[in-house]
Amino acid sequence: TFTVTGIDDALVDGDQQVTVTASATGFSAATDDVTVTDDDVPIVTIAATNSSVEEEETELGQFIITLSKVVDIDVTINYRIGGTATTGEDYTVLTGTVTIAAGETTETIDIAPIADLLFEADETIIVTLENGQLYDLGTATTATVTILNNDPVPTVTIAATTAITDEDSTTPGQFTLTLSEVAGVDITVTYSIVTG
Asked: What does DSSP assign to residue 87?
């Protein structure tokens, strides 16, 4: 037998495979592999550097992904997307991965809002880092950007659509409430009754 001993270094270069072939006169050659595991992977974290943006602003919401140290190869970070905003409707589509180039420690994910004409609640984009190769997750693995609604609150009007009824009528009186614009959220209207 013989031993293959890994040499510790400070390089993030991924797992390395050593292939050993043994041969002797009169015998068939034999080959096997030993994997040397890289234990120098950086820690990755996320933060929201611009955590709120209005629908129609040219300014972008932004996340920043940070490695704990410089590495000499590209590192691709996986992430998943959550929150109340809808990708492709409220903001442009994200890919689910971001690559930090060799020699760099940060990369950004930009959030470009898509304007609409609906009054609606503020909506969130939550990005959560996921496990992958060549990095470990730090403590800060989730960050949020909020898209602020900038559409006006619709106005409400009321009209008596059936203004006259009597005590014995099978047709009740009726009021109709109308919004000035379609809303993207439920609108609750409070009213009072005055009899005379």
From this structure: B
Q: How far apart are CA 143 and CA 141, in angstroms?
A: 7
For residue 163, the surrounding DSSP H or E stretch is none
Task: Say how far apart CA 116 and CA 189 lie, in whole Å.
Answer: 23
> What pLDDT, on a 0 to 100 scale, did the predictor assign at position 110?
95
**Runs of H (alpha helix) within the chain:** none
* Rounded mean pLDDT, 73-87: 94
Measured CA to CA, the distance from residue 143 to residue 62 in angstroms comes to 10
SS3 11: coil
Residue 57 Cα distances to 81, 83, 139, 147, angstroms: 22, 20, 32, 10
Triad 59, 61, 66: Cα angle to 5°: 125
- By residue count, the chain amounts to 196
State the DSSP H helix or E strand holding residue 176, giving kind and residue range, or none if neither: strand 174-179
**Rounded Cα distance, 47 and 69, in Å:** 17
Cα 55 vs. chain centroid, distance in angstroms? 17
Place of tokens 């589509």: 93
Task: Give yes or no for residue 35 having a pLDDT over 80.
Answer: no
What gap in Å lies between CA 61 and CA 143, rounded to an integer? Answer: 12
Instruction: Read off the tokens for 73.
Output: 């190869």
